[in-house]
Amino acid sequence: MNQAAQSGVPATAPATRDYFAEMYVAGVLADAGWNVYFPRRDEGFDFIITKLVSGSILVRPVQVKGKYPTRDKTAKMRYGYRGKLTAIHPEMVLAMPFFGMDLHAAPLFTVYLPVKQLSPRGGRAGQYRVEPARYRDAQSSVRPHFRRFTDEAGVALLESAEWPAQSPRI
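and the corresponding C-alpha cells:
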C-alpha cells in the first residue's frame, strides 16, 4: 500500500463525494424546516427547497458544489468555485460545503450564497466564480465578508424576502 493510500488523503478529489455534499446540505435545510424536493433528472439544480414564511411560500432552487482539498492543494487567499453552472435562477442558492482532509467527516463549514454573489467569468458563457474561503496550512476558513452566509446564519438568510438582493458580489 502506498503512502497516500495509508494516510487516507486522496491524491485527487473523489467524484463520488458530490452526492454526500448534496445530501448533507439537504439534511441541514430539512432540519431548518425547509421542504426538500429532488428532481427526476439533475438538469441544473440538485434540488428545490420550499418553506412557508410569513404567509408566503418561498421557493429556492439549490446547486451544491462541494470543495474537497487534496494532499497537494496549495495555499490560496481566495478559494471557492470557478466553473460552469448549468442553470441560474434569481432565487437560487449556491451551497458550498468545505470539507477537510478526512473524507468521513462532515464539512468544516457550508456557505449558502445568493446569485448576486456570483461573478461571471468574462468571455466564458455560463462560467462563474465565487471564492468565499481561504486555504492555508491544509485548512479552509471563511473569508470575513462571507461569514453572514455561513452555516446557521446563512440558512437563516434563506428566509429573508431580500434573499436575491443580498449585497452584490465582491
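(Above: one complete record from the training split.) The longest helix spans residues 17-31.
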